[in-house]
TrEMBL record:
Keyword set, alphabetical order: DNA-binding
The keyword DNA-binding is annotated on this UniProt entry: yes
Protein name: MmcQ/YjbR family DNA-binding protein
Domain of life: Bacteria
Organism: Devosia sediminis
GO-annotated molecular function: DNA binding
Length: 119
């Protein structure tokens, strides 16, 4: 089974950091956790090698029925999915979902914070 390049930490972090006002912290089991305005929008769970991210309600309903995608543990109630290297999503698809997760989470930040962050 081949791993998508974005599943590797350097590529994942470089892409996340290209998004406006995004930051990376290493926490929990040394996962790469992406935040905007202090709020998590996606993470790279290094073991088992999944990207967890916030998706829209419609995307959640569709995605959890796809092979290689499951409700993200602990985060599913907030509309998060876990995408494994076994999913049929391309790297471009995953990048688009990460970008959308950033948009969804940054859009819920307060007006003042969004302004301070240039969002």
């Amino acid at each position: 089974m081949t791993h998508l390049p974005i599943m590797h930490r350097p590529q994942f972090e470089a892409f996340v950091l290209s998004l406006p006002s995004a930051t990376i912290v290493h926490q929990w089991r040394d996962d790469s956790v992406a935040k905007v305005g202090g709020k998590i929008f996606c993470l790279l769970d290094r073991d088992p090698g999944e990207i967890w991210l916030k998706v829209s309600d419609m995307s959640y309903d569709l995605m959890v029925d796809m092979d290689g995608i499951r409700p993200a543990p602990y985060f599913a109630r907030a509309g998060w999915v876990a995408i494994s290297h076994e999913s049929a999503l391309s790297e471009d698809d995953i990048r688009a979902y990460i970008t959308e997760a950033h948009r969804l989470v940054s859009g819920k930040l307060g007006k003042r914070l969004r302004s301070e962050l240039g969002l």
